[in-house]
Design goal:
The protein is of the alpha+beta class and about 500 residues long. It has helices spanning about 5-10, 15-20, 40-55, 60-65, 70-105, 110-120, 145-175, 175-180, 185-210, 215-220, 235-245, 255-270, 275, 290-315, 325-340, 405-420, 425-435, and strands at about 30, 35, 220-225, 280-285, 350, 355, 375, 380-385, 385-395, 400, 445, 450-460, 460-465, 470, 480-490, 505. The longest helix is centred in the first third of the chain and has 32 residues, at about 70-105.
Length: about 500
Amino acid sequence: MTIKELEERTGMARANIRFYEGEGLLSPRRLDNGYRDYSEEDARTLEKIKLLRQLQLDIDTIRRVQGGALTLEQALFSQLTRLEGDRAVIERAAAVCRELEQSGVEYAALDPRPWLRQMEEPQRPALPEPPPAREERDDAPRACYCPWQRLFARSLDMALYGTILNMVWLIAFRDQSLVRLQTVPIASFLCGVGLLALTLALEPLWLHCWGWTPGKWVFGLKLRDGDGTRLSLAQGWERGWRVAWEGYGWNIPIWNLWRMWKGRTAGLEGRDCPWDCEEGYRYTKEERPYSGWIFVAARVLLTAALVVTLLWSALPPCRGELTVEEFARNYNHCLRVAEYGGETHIPTLGDQGRWVEREQPGGTVSIYLFGDTTVYEEPKYTVDGGVTAVTLRMSSRDKAVGGAFRESLVLLSLSRSAGGLNLFNILTAQSEADRLLDRWEDFEDDFLGVHISQRVEAVGYEPTEAFGASLWCEDEDQPHHCEKTVTFSIPEQNGRFSPPPGQAQADG
C-alpha cells in the first residue's frame, strides 16, 4: 500500500503519517527501490493512533502503550481523570465568563479579585439564594459513586457464594441441616458472619485479577487504584477488612444497623466510603443497558437452583433394584427429611431392615406410634432381584390408634425405585401419602407407581376425628383389639405387581 492509498484509507495527512513514523509509532516495510510499503496492520495502527490522539493522549503515552510499558486501560483511566478535571475547569470558566459579560463592566473599571475568587471556588447551582460554597481541598472525599448499585452488587456476590456453598453441601451429603440451621437466630447470625467473611476473602482475588466481582460486573463497575491499576491482593484484603467492620459491623446486631446507617448518611452527603476515598481508589463504569434485569434474573436463577437442589436432596438416594440395606437407607433418609420442624418417636431401620430404637429428647426410648400397647412388627420383604414388596403389620389394644406416618415413609422409600417420586411431586407426596393411608378400612390403590393393599380388623373401636383419621375405644372395659396390615408392591417388567410376602418373602 502506498502512502497515497494510506492517506485515503485513514483520512490522515501525509505530514502526520511521516511525523508518527519519525516518532517510532509506525514502521513500514522498505522496498528494494527505497519506497515504503504500508500493510493492513500499518493502517490499523494509524487508525488506533488517530483515535487515541483524538482522545488527547500524548505521543509518549501512546508509545508506552505500544511498547507494553503501560496498559491501554491504565492510560485511559489516567486520561479520563485529566479530562474530567479539565471539564470542571472549563465549565467554571464558562460560568464566570458569562456572568462577567452580562455585568457590562469595562476593562478600566474591572475589579478582578471577586472574579478570581469565583474561579477558585467549586461551581454552584444557579439558585436564588445558593448555600455558602466550601473551598475544595485536595484531600476532600469524592462523591459516592453509584452507592445503590454497589450495595446490590455485593448482595448478589453474597447470594452467589451462599447458594454455591449450600448446593455443594446438599449434593455431597444429601443433608438439609445446613439450610435448616439458617432459620435459627443464633445459627443464622453465625452463618451470616461466615458468609460475609468468605465474600470479603474472595473479593480481593476478583479485584486483583479482573478489577470487579461478579456482582460489580453486572452493573459495569470497575475498581482501580489511584494510578489506574488493579488493586493488589494486600490492598484488597485490607479493604475487605474495613468493609466488614466499618460497613457491616461484622453483622453484629444493632451495631451493623448503625454502621449501615452511617454509610447511608455519608452517601446522601455526597461522600464516598472511607475504605475507598481514603486510599485513593476510584470506580469507573461501563454501560450495561439491562443491568437491573440481569440482577433480577441472576437472583431468580440462584433461588431456583437452590430450590431444585433442595428438592433433589429430599429424594431417597437409592433407585432401581433395591437391596434391603438400600431400602433401609431410603427409609432413614425420608425420616430425616420428614422430621424437619419437630422430633417424632418413629424408629430408624438397620442395615438388615429391622427397627432400631433410638434415644429421644429427655432420654425416653420408644418404637411406638401411640401409647404403650401399639406395636409394629418387623417389616417383611419380598426380594426378587431387589425389594419388590414390603409389608407392615400393626396391632393395638390401646385406647386410641391412628396416624400413618411410618407407612407413608415406607411408601416414599419404595416409590423412588418404582419411578413415581420425582422433583415435580416431592413437595406434595408426603401429605398426599398421609391422607391416603389415614384410612382405617380395607382398600387397594396405586400411588407413585406403588400398589397399596391394606387390611384392617378392629373389634370394640369406633371411628373418630379426635386424632384425625383414628379409631377410639369408648368403653375400655369391653374387649377391643385392632390389627392393620399394609403391603406395598412395585410392578414387575410386564406391568403386574409383585405377590405379597409369603410366596417369596425374606423376613427383615
